[in-house]
Structures are given as C-alpha cells and as structure tokens.
Amino acid sequence: MLLVAHRTAATDGLRAAVRERVARGPATFHLVVPAHPHGLHKVVDPQEGDEGEAARVLSEALPLLSEAAGSEVTGHVGDHEPLMAIEDAINRAPYDEIVISTLPRRLSRWLHLDLVSKAHGTGLPVTHVEATEQDHAATG
C-alpha cells in the first residue's frame, strides 16, 4: 500500500488508516513524502523541493507508522510535484491502493490541486485521509 503525505505523515488519521488496513489482513506500507518548495524557492526555482524538511518528516513518521502497522514501514522522499511522486513510486513497485493524507480542506494545497482525483488516473483505488484541525495544530 502506498501512503502519500507530507505535513500529515505522522497524524492520528493516517496511523488509524494504517491500523484499519492491517485489521483487514496482511499489508505492507511504503510512505512517499514529496519534497516541498518553501519561501522564495516557490517563485525562483519551483523545481527545487526542500528535501531536508521532507527527510525530517519521513524520519519522524516512519517509526509511528511502523508501530501502527505492526511491521516496518518503508519510505522515501519523492518528487516535489505530488502526482509525479506517486507515479514514480508506482513505477518502482506494485501497490494495491494509494492512501493520500492531506491537511484540512481549507489549508490543503494538494486538495486545491485536485491531487486525489488526479491520482485515480493511476488505475489504483485511492483513499483520502483528511487531517483534523487538531492534527494540523499539533503538526503546525
């Protein structure tokens, strides 16, 4: 199962989605954290993502998600464009579902980009997990 998240990678909602899938039967998980351009990089060089922040998010989320899964969750930092990060991941390994975790609707750049709908174009089932305002405040 492919998990896609950035600022919501360690939230209760995504961990609950992992536990829910494990309860259905054996499952393996891989987390891709798209690099995210910040500040002037968004304007000057939008092709350059902040891999340092994404790597930090990944290292913080993997132990929490592994605990929820009851087994090791793997992961990597992906392309700064979230849809490209998804496509790259599914070209590297087979997945049976994509779970996309986003910030709350009013704050989510990914929802404004219609990432969830676009991810359906991969042909895989896509589940959207939207963080709560409390999750956002905790990860803020």
Which tags fit this structure?
140 residues, alpha/beta, 45% helix, disordered C terminus, Rossmann fold
Description:
- Strand 1 (2-4), helix 1 and strand 2 (30-34) form a beta-alpha-beta unit.
- Helices cover 45% and strands 16% of the residues.
- Helix 1 packs across helix 3.
- Strands 3-2-1-4-5 form a 5-stranded parallel β-sheet, with helices on both faces.
- With 140 residues, it is α/β, with parallel strands linked by helices.
- The longest helix has 19 residues, at 51-69.
Topology of helices and strands:
Elements: E1 2-4, H1 12-24, E2 30-34, H2 41-44, H3 51-69, E3 74-78, H4 82-92, E4 98-102, H5 109-112, H6 115-119, E5 126-130, H7 133-139
Parallel strand pairs: 1-2, 1-4, 2-3, 4-5
CATH class: Alpha Beta
Number of helices: 7
**Architecture (CATH level 2) name:** 3-Layer(aba) Sandwich
Mean pLDDT: 88
Structural class: alpha/beta
Q: Largest beta sheet, briefly?
A: 5 strands, parallel
Number of strands: 5
Shape: globular
Query: SSE order, as H and E?
Result: EHEHHEHEHHEH
The low-confidence parts are 39-49, 136-140
CATH topology: Rossmann fold
End-to-end C-alpha gap = 26 Å
Taking Cα atoms only, what radius of gyration do you get, to the nearest Å? 14 Å
Portion in helices: 40-55%
Which range does the strand content fall in? Answer: 15-25%
- Largest sheet strand order: 3-2-1-4-5
Total number of distinct structural domains:
1
Q: Please, what is the CATH homologous superfamily?
A: HUPs
